[in-house]
């Protein structure tokens, strides 16, 4: 999102009372269907909410076809209603093609981040920082702004690139005091490097760090304008939540120079609060934001909060009575392109994790209903599980390679005095016992997943026999099939 006064504008027009035209109206009506509306409220046995004919068809499809489903790929032998749904939903998806910064902002030059600034960055982060910093700098020149407020600054990568490479005054706001300390320490090391390069005495810009938990747009406005007005100190700690409204804040900060709000991976409501401050504060001339974690948006129907909810924002969305719910927001974070590019092994692991989560939800519903009603989060259990499995695979391959190397060296010694050639067997026949072992191993993984999740939630344990009963209910759908309802939902909301 790149927005500035007089630079770019998005107009939302409220729909009239008449029915929406095809195809948008077709999808809008689809959300009122049984499987869609119930999927918003419940996440156990989700596969039962999808049309029976569709599921019977899809459960016979190979994994490759399922992975292409969110990308709009259909097969001729599928039911006509399923093909229509997939193609119509895909036609409404916003394009995700990557564009060069020059196509967004003219007269832009992307300066490469040097080795000193790039310390601690992986290749993805380095790419993001280089391009976003260049965009912010170009827009700052257009707006005549010399100050940038980096909201949700983390360890200060963007703030430091803007300060040292583009000589902009930067205020880095983050909720973590640890991040603020890291930002300051890192900036001091970088400052020494740049100071040594300066031929003439030059005033180097160093980011200011502000520790503040932004709970509302009023808080963000107060911290932003106060920090830009106050030049004393490099770090402001424990900034108190403001009780003033944005209009009152602006009156007390008259004369504040124009500034830009910027955010890389501004999480959840943080992006919403940045938008509200941009609209309401005259001093904020532009907003450059890359949002993330849309599943963490607050919603007035579900969250009990004293501040304005993150969704919906517009009057049009409010009047439409559109309600998402946590499950649908979680699904919206998935990417069709990411599924399409998965390998077979990784795809099957992802389907397994979906099966574990579905079964774990059933465990909560049956044994800990009061916890389930709170829509708890257990963190990235699936990612941790995949790392654990990958580590075991790598260790197994390394052990096999060592054994093969040992066998080969032994064979060479044996073959010194013989002309016989001993073939090396690379394939092992897989019989029914191996398949049974695979099913048993999946239950063990599900058990580990469940015990870890229950531990994070502070719940008691569940007997193995009870877990096995639930797993037997889910297991028939676990091989490449449990993810189908989720993949269908991606079509509508991605």
What share of the residues does DSSP label as strand, in percent?
5-15%
Number of H- or I-type helical stretches: 21
Counted up, domains total 2
For the biggest sheet, the summary is: 7 strands, mixed
Number of strands: 7
Pattern of helices and strands: EHHHHHHHEHEHEHEHEHEHHHHHHHHH
Question: Are there runs of 5+ residues with pLDDT below 50, and where?
Answer: 1-24, 26-42, 232-243, 406-437
Output the radius of gyration: 27 Å
Helix fraction by DSSP (H/I, runs of at least 4): 40-55%
Ends apart, CA distance between termini: 17 Å
Coarse morphology:
elongated
Strand order of the largest sheet: 1-7-6-2-3-4-5
- Structure class: alpha/beta
Q: Provide mean pLDDT, rounded.
A: 73
Features:
single chain, 494 residues, alpha/beta, Rossmann fold, seven-stranded mixed β-sheet, 21 helices, 7 strands, 8% strand
Structure, explained:
It comes from Zea mays. This protein has 494 residues and is α/β, with parallel strands linked by helices. The chain folds into 2 domains: 20-96 and 335-394 and 434-494, no CATH class; 101-292, Rossmann fold (3-Layer(aba) Sandwich), CATH 3.40.50. It is 52% helix and 8% strand. The protein is built from 21 helices and 7 strands. The chain has helices at residues 24-30, 34-41, 52-58, 63-68, 80-91, 101-104, 123-143, 157-166, 177-197, 217-229, 246-252, 269-280, 315-319, 326-332, 336-340, 344-367, 369-372, 381-415, 432-457, 464-474, 484-493, and strands spanning 2-4, 147-151, 169-174, 208-211, 235-236, 259-267, 284-292. It has a 7-stranded mixed sheet, sandwiched between helices. β2 (147-151), α8 and β3 (169-174) form a beta-alpha-beta unit. α7 (123-143) crosses α8, α16 (344-367) crosses α19 and α16 (344-367) packs across α20 (464-474). The radius of gyration is 27 Å and the shape is elongated.
